[in-house]
């Protein structure tokens, strides 16, 4: 069975249950049932639960998809102004650029500290090359610098190290 991940569905059903418990509580007070005060607590809890689900639905999972980006793994993040992501060695410069834009959007957070006073988050993209068996060397293919404070930063600076693509395995360069 597949459950929806959209919080609006859960919020709607929780709101229905809250209204149903409210009506049931009103009926309990009219007929002076003994458990009517317990229903006040249940109705209050359902109201809090509905409010929480509504708040989560407002933007907890806002994620933009950048066309052309590839999957990456977060290798290093100091929680402040530097991060490193890793991709497979089968990548081209346009995919590097799209992936850097994707990572700059994904890793943005208002909670990041500015340790160096520059106000920029720097994300470097790397892959691993294996020049000989048993030896792995990180190869940095690009980096992006964006604001630590502005969510929709218009001045994102993407730098692609095009000279490094010659070091990738030749059958993978396209």
Automatic annotation (TrEMBL):
Q: Which UniProt keywords apply?
A: Membrane, Transmembrane, Transmembrane helix
State the InterPro entries in the record.
Answer: Uncharacterised_Ycf51 (IPR019664)
Its transmembrane ranges are: 12-31, 38-61
Q: List the Pfam families hit by this protein, alphabetically.
A: DUF2518 (PF10726)
Protein's name in the database = Ycf51 family protein
The beginning of the lineage is: Bacteria, Bacillati, Cyanobacteriota, Cyanophyceae, Oscillatoriophycideae
């Amino acid at each position: 069975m597949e459950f929806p991940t959209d919080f609006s569905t859960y919020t709607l059903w929780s709101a229905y249950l809250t209204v149903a418990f409210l009506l049931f509580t009103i009926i309990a007070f009219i007929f002076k049932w003994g458990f009517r005060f317990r229903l006040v607590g249940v109705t209050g809890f359902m109201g809090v639960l509905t409010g929480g689900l509504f708040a989560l639905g407002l933007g907890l999972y806002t994620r933009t998809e950048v066309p052309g980006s590839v999957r990456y793994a977060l290798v290093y993040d100091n929680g402040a102004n530097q991060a490193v992501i890793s991709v497979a060695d089968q990548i081209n410069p346009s995919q590097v650029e799209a992936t850097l834009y994707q990572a700059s959007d994904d890793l943005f957070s208002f909670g990041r500290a500015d340790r160096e006073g520059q106000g920029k988050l720097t994300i470097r993209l790397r892959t691993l090359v294996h020049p000989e068996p048993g030896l792995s060397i990180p190869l940095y293919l690009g980096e992006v610098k964006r604001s630590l404070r502005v969510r929709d930063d218009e001045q994102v600076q993407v730098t692609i190290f095009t000279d490094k693509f010659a070091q990738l395995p030749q059958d993978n360069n396209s």
